[in-house]
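Researcher: Quick test of sequence recovery. Tokens follow.
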């Protein structure tokens, strides 16, 4: 009996051990299988969503969390995540995306041709998710106050109407394009121009609104990589207010190609809003120079700036501010562009020639808008540019960018790579040689601001020197003793070494 009992105890312990192993494996493998299944389903869903985005005429973008209370335009349910159209403002849940893509038309950048010339178009109404604090165009009361999908908004004029105020006549009423009618390129204008070009004619003058006196269409050029990476958000906001054909992402299309739209618009009336840093502005100005070379002088636009870069010295000089962080509504930015007066900006050619009697290389020619320097600040800018090109994902805000500049400036204070520059360089201003004191850097200024908002030529402001101007045909030339001296000048603890003003500067 004892032997039988011992064998039964042994077998029961074996069963218990295997049972423990089985349930342990289940507790480990089951969560892994569930995770893999969820991952597979998610990736499959993402592929389907991307396929809808690719084939759609809407400019869909997916978000995990809407910034304000939102309701699906198909099922009318409250949604926290889903897709939204950057052009017409539709918002849908993930499950209703395909149906919404089939049911609702997006903004048409060009009207469908039916053989006739159009001079107007009806409203394009979208229901629900109207802007906060918007008022009904009929009763003048606030819209969008109810916690549900309600009220209408026209995607062109941005007028809003209550559900109960919406009448049949409004659905066929002519759209006026609202407050920004003088900035918008109407779809019917582009369709008429397209028909004229097919007929090999160029008489655009009689096309509405070409012949309207105050029409000044604006073209938006945004660099999504500039400064604090706000370009992506601004592209969507401008597409909502304007015709999407007027809004360009410079990471996808070059300025020279985007500016060809000017040739379809009135001469000397177009305004370009550059959303980016000083480098982006220089890129656009170079593209405008190319238009002059092609003989398109009469289509040259005026340039406005929305400063998204790190330094923004050119924007600051021209009165567009030291930096934009979303504090001003996009509507106010467009009003500023409409009301702005034109001013002139000196632009200079910088020619770099290699030394030597038997030099057969062509000299390199660059265009200078802001300033040109030899020394520590040029070295900092070069290191910053190389670092950003290598790892662009790290440079996502102005604070990080300035921290990188500070790092390279501190490094130069210790290493002093540009020491004794005065012994290596000879300087001539308007043909007259200048005796250089002990320097590490020479800076040639075209504009008043330098280094992210510093008035370099004026320095501490304790000495009577004429103010630097951007339209006087003169360059200001200063010297610095090193990176630490540059930092002192920026906080107004030191003056630069003023070397003079000139029409031509030569460094050898």
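Model:
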């Amino acid at each position: 009996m004892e032997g039988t009992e011992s064998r039964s105890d042994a077998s029961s312990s074996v069963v218990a051990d295997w049972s423990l192993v089985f349930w342990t494996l289940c507790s480990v493998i089951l969560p892994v299988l569930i995770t893999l299944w969820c991952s597979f389903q998610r990736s499959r869903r993402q592929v389907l969503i991307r396929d809808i985005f690719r084939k759609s005429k809407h400019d869909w973008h997916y978000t995990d969390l809407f910034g304000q209370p939102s309701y699906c335009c198909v099922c009318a349910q409250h949604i926290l995540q889903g897709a939204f159209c950057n052009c017409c403002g539709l918002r849908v849940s993930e499950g209703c995306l395909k149906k919404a893509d089939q049911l609702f038309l997006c903004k048409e950048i060009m009207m469908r041709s039916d053989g006739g010339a159009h001079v107007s178009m009806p409203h394009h109404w979208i229901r629900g998710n109207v802007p906060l604090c918007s008022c009904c165009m009929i009763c003048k009361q606030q819209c969008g106050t109810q916690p549900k999908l309600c009220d209408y908004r026209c995607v062109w004029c941005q007028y809003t109407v209550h559900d109960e105020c919406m009448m049949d006549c409004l659905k066929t009423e002519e759209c006026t394009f609202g407050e920004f009618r003088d900035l918008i390129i109407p779809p019917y204008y582009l369709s008429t121009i397209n028909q004229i070009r097919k007929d090999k004619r160029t008489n655009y003058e009689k096309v509405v609104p070409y012949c309207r006196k105050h029409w000044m269409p604006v073209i938006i050029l945004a660099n999504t990589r500039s400064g604090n990476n706000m370009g992506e958000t601004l592209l969507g906001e401008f597409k909502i207010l304007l015709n999407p054909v007027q809004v360009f992402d410079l990471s996808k299309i070059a300025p020279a190609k985007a500016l060809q739209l000017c040739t379809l618009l009135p001469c000397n009336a177009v305004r370009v809003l550059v959303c980016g840093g000083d480098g982006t502005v220089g890129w656009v100005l170079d593209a405008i120079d190319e238009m002059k070379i092609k003989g398109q002088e009469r289509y040259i636009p005026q340039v406005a700036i929305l400063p998204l870069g790190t330094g923004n010295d050119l924007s600051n000089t021209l009165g567009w501010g030291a930096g934009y962080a979303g504090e001003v509504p996009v509507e106010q930015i467009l009003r500023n562009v409409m009301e702005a007066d034109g001013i002139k900006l000196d632009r200079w050619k910088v020619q770099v020639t290699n030394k030597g009697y038997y030099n057969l290389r062509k000299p390199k020619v660059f265009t200078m808008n802001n300033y040109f320097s030899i020394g520590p600040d040029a070295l900092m800018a070069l290191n910053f540019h190389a670092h950003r090109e290598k790892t662009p994902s790290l440079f996502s805000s102005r604070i990080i960018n300035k921290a990188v500049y500070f790092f390279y400036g501190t490094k130069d204070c210790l290493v002093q790579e540009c020491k004794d520059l005065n012994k290596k360089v000879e300087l001539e201003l308007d043909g007259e040689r200048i005796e250089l004191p002990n320097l590490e850097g020479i800076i040639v200024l075209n504009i008043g601001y330098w280094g992210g908002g510093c008035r370099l030529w004026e320095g501490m402001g304790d000495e009577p020197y004429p103010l630097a101007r951007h339209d006087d045909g003169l360059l200001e030339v200063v010297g610095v003793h090193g990176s630490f001296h540059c930092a002192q000048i920026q906080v107004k603890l030191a003056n630069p070494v003023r070397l003079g003003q000139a029409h031509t500067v030569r460094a050898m």
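DSSP finds twelve helices and 23 strands in the chain.
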